[in-house]
């Protein structure tokens, strides 16, 4: 039997469930991961990523020293990024001095807002707090954002409009207290697997009724009492028809509406047109299913809604989310245990990265940048002259890339993201990326975006540093260093401290300057706690064994599992009248299939982490899922190579003929660089949330030959170091 040299307790670096991990290491080498049975979010359960997905830490493609590009990337040659001849290794001093010179020079010449920063929802709260502090306090720009823009922006904006707060209202584990719950636009069993286990228990053990609203026959459909297989992009019609039924049949909670909401009459009037018959015509879901689902949810004692990207990643994502928020406001299924509006957050620390202010319109704690009150608060805390911080709202991720084309943005600092796989319409996005004058990538690997960088800074992984992540339950949990940083890699926060001190010196600004002398990550969380009331009571000592759920208002505050018990942050919750607007690109004779994109259990986003490890052996290539009826019509067999083309690009991959998808809808996961789904997707945005329509565009599928498939070389490039 192997006796572990040591075991370090930490938090999973993949999804927002936030499972507790024990990393077993010997000789500074992690060889096994387990989880304790008393872990609050997962009770000892782990999915395949938490259990086996740690080996990217040791992959030979990991970059362990700072690099500078010797030759600039040639147009159209992404693969060259992995060619060592293009890079030279340099010292940390050389790298940070070079970045200091280039960023200050560009900012002086082209203005503060010519710089932009991407934060990292994989990194800690501490890392991200410092990145936004550097952008704001030193470079005086609010051009800082992160992947939440591509993710839950629609939900965030809708929840802010309706309730004044954007986080999940309840704790995921409360699902066993629901008697009816709706899952919509969330492939929970593959994307939040441990929450899915709790949902299955709610149905099987506690007798809850589940309504799944999703265009694909996802695994949770097996557990469901009802499956409403709507056409992609028709959620507003469907959920508003449910509201219509609740109104007509007087199934609403009058006392709740009177006491806690506003604008009900105008809303109710706007629901008149959403008859179930209209919704059936638009969504394909039969009238009686709509009526049944509305009755089931409205009559529940404890009803809850869980949703993810099928709702938010749409050109009307804000309206989609509003249409489900209305159901909770009509029925009063909010503000109590076992109820709630629960947008499941995706990345391990996307909640925390938003809380830490990696947002173009908000300081940490959602304090608006265009308000003098909040700007003055941060000026005082960071010892900045009065009026020194920018009051101008910054650009969002999607706008930052577009602003490269106009020359408005000249430089991009990417801390742990991969926009060249994760942004929509990649052929176009690549062209924009090339327009930038200076790019810094701070990551573990040179991913498809690092391929465009001028300087690469090696950060270390979650296993090599201390800090905190905030999970989807708003639970702040510890991340602990299990092994020494590999090679010359460093924690993100320490890289930023070092860089910020150099920039501060370089600028020789007179008078006081912001503090950058942090010696430990907790010092940073304490500073965040002084500025963000919701984090005021979080200390490492208090979260030593179990995390605390924000808001934690002072050092004696127990944390807040259920939000909105007495009131909403906006006082009353607001109903919003809605219209049904069709998706931006509809099918036609030429492009007759709807493409929807998303995830599989074994892979993470663009694959930088999971394709650099054994998870890739479990799911080595992306497949396009097509319904047997469509496959027969198109003459496509299971396993056959096909071309999938949209108006923006073409990919070649193998087909999987399956009834997991519905007629007229094909699905491609976006992890594969060989057949990247975002070559096809459309870059239209929701007008309020600025989130792209990743879930719906029109494509056609044609048979291809084996020779058309991408050469295995394209994938092998990744591991060639
Ligand atoms: N294994 C794995 N897990 C992950 C991730 C990962 O990369 N890999 N990423 C994490 C992140 S950042 C996030 S944000 C989450 C995302 O979690 P999910 O949103 O569950 O992930 P997707 O695969 O994008 O699934 C979207 C779901 O929406 C459905 N859908 C598509 N179009 C529509 C529509 O028009 N209406 C409705 N109602 N539904 C629709 C799809 O069929 C699918 O079930 O996952 C997190 N977990
Ligand atoms: N077609 C399509 N596109 C999508 C989506 C979709 O459903 N369909 N979903 C969107 C969504 S919801 C999201 S969240 C985005 C995700 O998009 P991204 O955030 O761009 O994707 P990731 O691959 O998660 O990028 C994380 C990067 O951080 C690095 N990293 C890991 N740990 C650390 C660390 O501690 N420090 C640093 N500095 N780096 C680290 C990893 O190596 C990796 O390169 O994709 C979006 N794009
Ligand atoms: S469910 Fe999420 S947090 Fe838990 S082990 Fe899997 S990826 Fe990690
Ligand atoms: Mo996400």
- The end-to-end distance, rounded to whole angstroms, is 35 Å
- Amount of helix: 25-40%
Number of separate strands = 28
The CATH C-level class name of the largest domain? Alpha Beta
What is the count of distinct domains? Answer: 4
Spans with pLDDT under 50 lasting ≥5 residues?
75-81
- Rg over CA atoms, rounded to whole Å, is 25 Å
In the CATH scheme, what's the topology name of the largest domain? Rossmann fold
CATH architecture of the largest domain: 3-Layer(aba) Sandwich
Q: Sheet with the most strands?
A: 7 strands, mixed
What would you call the structural class?
A: alpha/beta
Query: Helix segment count?
Result: 23
Cα shape: globular
Task: Report the portion of residues in β strands.
Answer: 15-25%
Strand order of the largest sheet: 5-4-18-17-16-6-7
* Average pLDDT taken over every residue: 95
